[in-house]
């Protein structure tokens, strides 16, 4: 049965070859040329949450406003701009889960920079930011869970998806300001008691204000987690970018 399914994929690829979601070249769902053109986040960055800054600062405005204490350290891999933007959009909204593996490579690049190898050596579980059950049913998968799974496999870490869940449905973060986002996700997550004493790594796809990631970390800390780190695939450049999908 499996080989018939594989034959089906093979024949589909012959007659309908995959096209790059960013440049439409035939052959790959995200071609090498586009993959290499993705802009990494570079200094200056906020030393706590890793968001790029226009000038070197001690902390970015979000971290200075508080509410981020539950997170030990966060880094963001890439800028949310072309050609990554259409790839994330396709992963998130166009039902193309096969994009998760090629996009997880950017987490691996961050993981090789200090101090991440030392941090990851002590991580007990990799936890994706959860989707509520209803949205999971609509989308068919949690894009952050696919990214976390691909990253955990590459780094030989334990994927611990069941350790954190959505306690309630939240409205989309799109169009909300920082304070509204924080309010929207407060107490939205529930951590399993198994996280007590554990060192955890949260994975998310897009980082705007970081309110979702902070709320996840808070739930894990309340359940006794010893440390909570975060790696995020992408964030808008420091200039205001209104076309961000938000922490959905
Ligand atoms: Zn391309
Ligand atoms: Zn910050």
User: How are the strands of the largest sheet arranged?
Assistant: 1-6-5-2
Characterize the overall form: globular
End-to-end Cα distance: 36 Å
CATH fold title of the largest domain: Rossmann fold
Bound molecules: zinc ion
Structural class: alpha/beta
Biggest pleated sheet: 4 strands, parallel
Mind telling me the C-alpha Rg?
Answer: 18 Å
From N to C, what is the helix and strand string?
Answer: HHHEHHHEHHEHEEHE
Give the C-level CATH assignment of the largest domain: Alpha Beta
User: Could you give the count of β-strands?
Assistant: 6
Give the strand content.
5-15%
Number of domains: 2
Which percent bin holds the helix content? 25-40%
Topology:
Blueprint lengths: L1 H14 L16 H6 L23 H4 L8 E7 L4 H10 L6 H12 L4 H6 L3 E4 L4 H7 L3 H13 L8 E3 L11 H8 L3 E3 L7 E8 L4 H12 L4 E9 L13
Helix pairs in contact: 5-8, 9-10
Bound molecules: zinc ion (ZN) (2 copies).
Short description:
The protein has 248 residues and is an alpha/beta fold. It folds into two domains: 1-34, no CATH class; 38-235, Rossmann fold (3-Layer(aba) Sandwich).
């Amino acid at each position: 049965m499996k080989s018939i399914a594989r034959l089906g994929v093979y024949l589909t690829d012959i007659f309908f070859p995959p096209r790059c979601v960013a440049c439409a070249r035939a052959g790959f769902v995200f071609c090498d040329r586009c993959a290499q053109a993705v802009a990494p986040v570079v200094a200056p960055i906020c030393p706590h949450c890793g968001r790029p800054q226009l000038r070197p600062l001690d902390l970015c405005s979000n971290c200075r406003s508080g509410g981020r204490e539950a997170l030990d350290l966060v880094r963001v891999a890439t800028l949310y701009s072309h050609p990554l933007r259409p790839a994330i959009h396709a992963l998130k909204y166009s039902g193309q889960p096969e994009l998760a593996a090629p996009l997880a490579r950017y987490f691996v690049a961050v993981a090789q920079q200090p101090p991440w190898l030392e941090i990851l050596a002590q991580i007990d579980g990799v936890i994706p930011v959860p989707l509520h059950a209803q949205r999971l049913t609509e989308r068919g998968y949690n894009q952050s869970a696919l990214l976390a799974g691909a990253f955990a496999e590459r780094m030989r870490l334990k994927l611990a998806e069941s350790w954190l869940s959505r306690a309630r449905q939240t409205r989309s973060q799109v169009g909300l300001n920082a304070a509204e986002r924080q309010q929207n996700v407060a107490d939205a997550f529930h951590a399993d008691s198994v996280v007590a004493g554990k060192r955890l790594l949260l994975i998310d796809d897009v980082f705007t204000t970081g309110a979702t990631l902070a709320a996840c970390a808070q739930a894990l800390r309340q359940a006794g987690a010893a440390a909570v780190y975060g790696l995020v695939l992408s964030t808008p450049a420091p200039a205001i970018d209104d076309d961000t999908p938000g922490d959905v």
